[in-house]
Amino acid sequence: MNRFVLCSSLFVLTGLLSVPAASVAAAPGGQHADEVDPRIGTGGDGHLFPGATVPFGMIQLSPDTAMPDFKHAYKWAAGYQYGDPTIMGFSHTHFSGSGHSDLGDVLVMPIAGDVKLDPGDEKVPGSGYRSRFDHATEVEHPGYYAVTLSDYGVRAELTATQRVGWHRYTFPTGKPAHVLLDLRPSIYDYAGKVLWSNLQVRADGTVTGCRTTRGWAPGRELCFAMRFNQPMTSRELYNRETDLLYKGFKGPGNQPVDQNAQNGRAIVGVFDFGDLKQPLLVKVAISPVSEANAIANLDKDGQGWAFDQHRDEANAAWNKALAAIDVDGSPTQRTQFYTALYHSLMAPNLAMDANGDYRGPDHQVHHADGFNFYSSWSMWDVYRAQQPLLILLHPDRTVDFVRSIIAAQEASPFHMLPVWAYEGLETWCMTGYHAVAIISDAYVKGIRGFDADKAMHAMVSTATYGDYGDLADYMKLGYVPIDKEVEGGSKTQEYAYDDWAIAQMAKAMGKNDIYNTFEKRATYWRNVWDPKTGFMRAKLSDGQFREPFDPASAGYGDDYTEANAWQYSWYVPQDVAGLVTAMGGDKAFTDKLDQMFDAKVDPAIFKDVEDITGLIGWYAHGNEPSHHIAYLYDYAGEPWKTQQRLKQIMDNEYGPGPAGLIGNDDLGQMSAWYIFTALGFYPVTPASTEYAIGRPFVPRAAIHLSNGHTFTVTASPMDNDHPYVGAVTLNGKPLDRVYLKHADILAGGELHFTMQAEPNKTWGQDISARPTAMSPYTH
C-alpha cells in the first residue's frame, strides 16, 4: 500500500513465467535458501530490502542508500534503491515491501580514515560519511548481506538473529578505524522527525540509547544496546541540532562534544578503534521498551562473538521455513518461487523483548504471557493471501499472530483491532477492519490455541465502533455515505465482507445472535450496487448515488480506495454468486470480465495514483483490489478463462532482477498471490474453507504440512503449448468441482492436472461445481 496521501498498496513480484517443457528437480535436502534472490524487488517500486533478517524477526539489518524527505520518500520506503550509487549506512529496522515509509533505526557506518559527521551528497564523493559501492561486491543471501564500501576499503558483513543485528567490518591497515552511529535518520523523513534521543557509553563499554520519532506512528519509541569485540581508543558524542533540516526548528545549538553521554534531537556518536589488524565485530539489540530491556536482549540473544555461527543459524532458519514446500522446475522457476516464499515469511515481525515486554497501541508497556507478540500488520493487504498461506504452511505461528492481534485490541484506547500497526502502534492507514478476516479464517480452518470468546468480543467491538470510518452511518443506513466519508463505496463493500467473516466464526461457535446480525450486514454491498450503470458506486446521505460518475476515475476522495469502479465493482468475495446475478447472469458477468481485461487503457490515466500499476486493460495486478478478479470466471461456469487470464498475468506482470516488481510487495501479499497461483489454487474468500482452482505454473510442488501429511500438486504436460486444464484428479479420482477444500489439503494426497492445448469448456460449468457463496447460483 502506498498511502502517502491516505496510505496504500501495490507491487508485483518478480518473474516466473513461462514454464519450459524440461524441468529440473528441486534443490536436495531442502536447501532452498540458496535458491532465493533477495535483489528481486530492490529496484523500481518493489520497496524490498536486500539485507539480513530471519523469518518474522525483530531485526531487519540492511543498507540504506537514501532517506529523503517525506514528499520524496516513496521509492525509498525500504531505505534501499538498487540504482543508487552510494550507501549511507546500515540500519536495523525496515519494512518489507510497504507502500509507506518509516523505521531505519540505529544507523551504523564503518569509516576508515577521516570522519565526517553528516551523510553528504551522493553526487559529490567525499562530501559526507556515505560511501560509493559496486554491486559486483555485494552478496545477498537469506540471513546474510555483504558489500565493500569503496571509499573506505571496508568490507562490511551483516547477519541477524531474532533480536540482534551482527556486523563484521574488515578495515584496511594503515588507517584508523571508526564506527559512526547516527540517531538522526528516519526513512519517514531524514531530518526533523526525531522528537528526542539520548546516547551514552556505559562503564563496560556498552553503548545504549533511545529515540522517539514522530513518523508514521507518532511517538514511537525505540531503544538499543551495542557492543564491540575490541576496546575503543576514544569516542566523541555530538549534538548536531543546529544542522537539523526541520523547517522552523530552533534548537539550543551544537552542544559541547562529550565522551560519555548526549541527548537531544540530532545525536551522532563516533567510536574510534585505531589501526585494526583484525575484523571489528559489532552486535546491536533493539527494544521497543527501554535501554535496560535492550541490554537484556543483548545478554540473552547476543552472547559471544561467533559471527559465522549466527550466519549459519540464520541460513538454517530460512531453510527450515522454506522447506514447507518442495518445488520442481527450472533454476529460474525455483528462484522465482523461493524468492516469493522468502518474502511471504518476513512479516509480521516480532515486537517483543526477551522478557515478554512489548509496547501497545496505547503507548504503554504490556507483557505477553505464553505467546510471542508480533506487529507490522498491513491488514488491508495480507488478509487476502499472505495470512491464508501462513495458516496453511505455519499454523503454529498463526496462533501467536491471532493472540497478538487480540492483545493489541485489548490495549487499544478505542477497543479496535489493528488496522495498519507496526512496533505495536497504530497508524490507521487503509480501510476496513480486516483483522477480523484473519482471525475468522484461522478459526474456521481449525486453528485453536487462542481464546475464541475474547477474539469474538474483539471482532464485534471493532465492527461496532461508530467513530471509525463512519461505521455509525454504515450501521444506520446500510452504507457509508460519501458526503460523510471519503471512499464510501469501497468502504461499504469492505465492511460487508468483514461482517461476513465475523458471521462465519460466530456460526462455527454457535453464537447465533451475532451470526444473524453480521450475516445481514454482509448483504450491505447491495446498497452500493447501481444496476443502471452496472458498477458499484458511492451514495450520498440522502440515498442518491453521487454524481457525476466516471467509472475510470480514481484518486483520494473518490468513491474507492486506490482503485476505480472497474476494479472495485468485483469486490464481493463473500457472495460472488449474488454479484453474478446482479450483473445479469453468467454470460453478462463473464462478458464484463472480458471487457475489463481487454480494454485499451492508457496507464497515464493513473499517473497521480502510484499504486495502480501492472495494467491488463482495467485490471491492475499491482494493487490488491484486483487480486481475486481473474479467479471469478470459476464462479460463472468458465474456469478456462481463469486459466487464460492467470497465464496472461504471469507472463506479463513478472520479471527477474531488481526491477522485477512493478510495485510494492506489501509485507508479503503480492508474493503470496504468486505462491498460491503457481500451486494452482487461491483463497478468493478468506474465512471460507475453499480455494478457487486456477492452473498450476510448476510441474510439481509438495506441501509438507505440520500434521505430518504431504499434499502434492502435479501437472503434465507443463509447457507453453498446453496452457489449459483438461482434467483434474484428487487422489486418482476425477475432481469435477473448480474449488479445493482446506480439508482436502490437510488430508494429504495428490492433486493432478492434465494440461492440454485447447480449453475444456465443459469442466466446472455446472452450478454444483462452483465455489459456494451466500446467494444461490442462477444462470
UniProtKB/TrEMBL annotation:
It comes from the Bacteria. Residues 1-21 form the signal peptide. Keywords: Hydrolase, Signal. Gene3D superfamilies: 2.70.98.10, alpha-1,2-mannosidase, alpha-1,2-mannosidases domains, GH92 mannosidase domain. InterPro entries: 6-hairpin_glycosidase_sf, GH-type_carb-bd, GH92_a_mannosidase_put, GH92_N, Glyco_hydro_92, PNGase. GO terms for biological process: carbohydrate metabolic process; glycoprotein catabolic process. Residues 293-756 form the Glycosyl hydrolase family domain. Residues 36-287 form the Glycosyl hydrolase family 92 N-terminal domain. The keyword Cytoplasm does not apply. One of its GO terms (molecular function) is peptide-N4-(N-acetyl-beta-glucosaminyl)asparagine amidase activity. GO terms for cellular component: cytosol. PANTHER family: PEPTIDE N-GLYCANASE PNGASE -RELATED, SECRETED PROTEIN. This is Glycoside hydrolase family 92 protein. It comes from Dyella dinghuensis.
